[in-house]
Amino acid sequence: MKLLDVKLGQLPTWLAMRDFTPGGIAGALRRGYERYYNKYINVKKGGLGGISMVLAGYVVVSYIWSYSHLKHDRHRKYH
Questions:
Q1: In this predicted structure, what is the pLDDT of residue 79?
Q2: Does position 77 have pLDDT exceeding 70, yes or no?
Q3: Could you give the 3-state DSSP secondary structure of residue 28?
């Protein structure tokens, strides 16, 4: 059953049925990658949409990782 089909009262039982082992998490990541690849990359008439989403995700993740450093630089005075 997909997450969108789960009602709020069924959420704890749905989460209990998920496989949180390393193999289960790797399988979920693999399925997600295959779904993304088949939807945006492996198409007959492809565009820049799929690759631009990957680049935008990379920019957001790298900003989050370096936010603490950037936060301290914001308050420094350069004079």
A1: 55
A2: no
A3: helix
Q: Select from 32, 30, 26 the least CA-distant residue to 3.
A: 32
**Residue 55 burial (10 A CB sphere; 0-12, 13-18, 19+):** exposed
Alpha helices, H only, the chain: 11-17, 22-36, 49-65, 67-74
Distant-in-sequence, close-in-space partners of 14: CB < 8 Å, separation ≥ 6: 1, 3, 6
Statement: residue 50 has pLDDT above 70: yes
Residue 7: pLDDT above 80?
yes
| Confidence (pTM) | 0.57
Q: How far apart are CA 56 and CA 61, in angstroms?
A: 9
